[in-house]
Amino acid sequence: MSIVRRIARAAFWPMLWKEFAQLRRDRFTFAMMTVLPAAQLALFGYAIRTEVRDLPTVVLDESRSQQSRELLQALENTGNFAFTEHASGRAAVEEAIASGRARAAVIVPPRYATDVKRGRQATAQVIVDAADPLASQAAIGGAAQAGQVVSMRLGGVRAPPLDVRVRPWYNPTLDSATYIVPGIIGILLSLTLILIMSISIVRERERGTLEQLIVTPIDRTSLMLGKMTPFVLIGYVQMTVVILLGWLLFDVPLRGSLALLYVLSLTFIVASLGVGLLISTAVKSQVQAMQLGFFFLLPNILLSGFMFPREAMPVAAQWIGLALPLTFYLDVVRGVLLKGVGIEYLWRDTLILAGFAVGLIALSVRRFHKTLG
């Protein structure tokens, strides 16, 4: 037994030295295990905030009086609202919230100043885009706080308090599943398609079959598009499953056109496949492809607005989020399913996603040519 132990101890150290030497030569894996986790910790620890402040807010002041301006000032002083535009009417308020330019709206009725002066209970309305429960809770809390402040100012002269009525749109019960489930569509599509695409190309390269395809008359662009097309169909199957289960299990509403959603989703599916194709040009093995794919997943979850409101993030983190196709696709999928909006509100996001798709595929094909050249 002692001889076996001596042999094991003797063989252990050379094997350990060999593994460390191999790890030192594989700089990509070493960086993925050391440098990138530290960078992610610094980025996400700095970026993730659950305290939502400065919600973009549209104002409709139909009173246009000193009293209404005092109310608006009290709302802005809470720090939860940032007045970004003044609406000309109720239709403009609805358009601003439906398009996503505003997350809340403040409406001061024409009789507000008259009610305050005559000692009657004055009312004002705060409309909240409640599709995001965290952001809507911030707006509801800010409205209540401002109502208390103004009521205290009037309390010495006018007994009736101010009634700031909050009206949540799109998700009146503030159900988190209503907000999360549509976003899961984007998360699953990006994760699955990126990993499958990157691993598929690398596997072909490791087996030597990719080079055999390249020497055929098929050009590289057609080859890549042919590889991607089956995964587009897989993406649509995933979409259908999540939408159906979300409707059956979590009562997620389907307010918009599913046909429109399927058409617009093509840009995001192709963009996700483009990311996977780009990853395949930067790695040499399937393990590295999976490592880089999972590294891309964390920003997708934390910086795109899937879980945390982007308004709560620092400006630098918001800019990083703009480099993620999922950031724009979340506006599309939640806009169609929860708000029921059409292409007139979603064309900008769709155009940006189309730009991602074309740019990523073009860059990937060019790098693919250089890699195999």
Could you explain how this protein is built, in words?
The protein is α/β, with parallel strands linked by helices and 373 residues long. Helices cover 69% and strands 9% of the residues. Strands 2-1-3-4-5 form a 5-stranded mixed sheet, with helices on both faces. Strand 1 (55-61), helix 4 (66-77) and strand 2 form a beta-alpha-beta unit. Helix 8 (176-207) packs antiparallel against helix 10 (220-250). The longest helix has 32 residues, at 176-207. The chain is elongated and about 85 Å long.
Summary?
The protein is an alpha/beta fold and 373 residues long.
The helix-strand sequence is HHHEHEHEHEHEHHHHHHHH
Shape: elongated
Record field, number of beta strands: 5
What is the straight-line distance between the termini?
56 Å
Q: In percent, how helical is the residue content? A: 55-70%
User: What's the total helix number?
Assistant: 15
Provide mean pLDDT, rounded: 80
- Please outline the major beta sheet: 5 strands, mixed
Unreliable stretches, pLDDT < 50, 5 or more residues?
none
What's the arrangement of strands in the largest beta sheet?
Answer: 2-1-3-4-5
Q: Approximately what portion of the residues adopt beta-strand conformation?
A: 5-15%
Radius of gyration: 27 Å
Structural class: alpha/beta
